[in-house]
TrEMBL record:
Native organism: Streptomyces lacrimifluminis
UniProt keyword annotations, A-Z: Membrane, Transmembrane, Transmembrane helix
Transmembrane regions: 52-71
Name of the protein this chain belongs to: Uncharacterized protein
């Protein structure tokens, strides 16, 4: 089945052909609305400021955690 890219939202009828006889079924197909294809329907390209803030926070947390781990290991070797 193919739906035109310019189809408007609404209910549509579907016509089938079986053994040479067409049969129409009313209101069995509904177009709800269009979405943008590609990257999951997103409309932005690249990282958003929110994505950058989350990534920066994760990197900072990893650096702090690694520093704490390294300092603990360093102090244990002096005992």
């Amino acid at each position: 089945m193919t739906v035109n890219s310019n189809a408007t939202a609404g209910s549509y009828s579907v016509t089938t052909r079986c053994e040479g006889r067409p049969q129409t079924f009313s209101g069995v197909f509904t177009v709800i609305g269009g979405v943008r294809g590609g990257l999951g329907g997103s409309s932005s390209i690249g990282a958003t400021p929110t994505d950058m803030a989350i990534g920066g926070g994760l990197v900072a947390a990893a650096l702090v955690g690694g520093g704490v781990f390294w300092m603990r290991r360093r102090s244990e070797s002096r005992i």
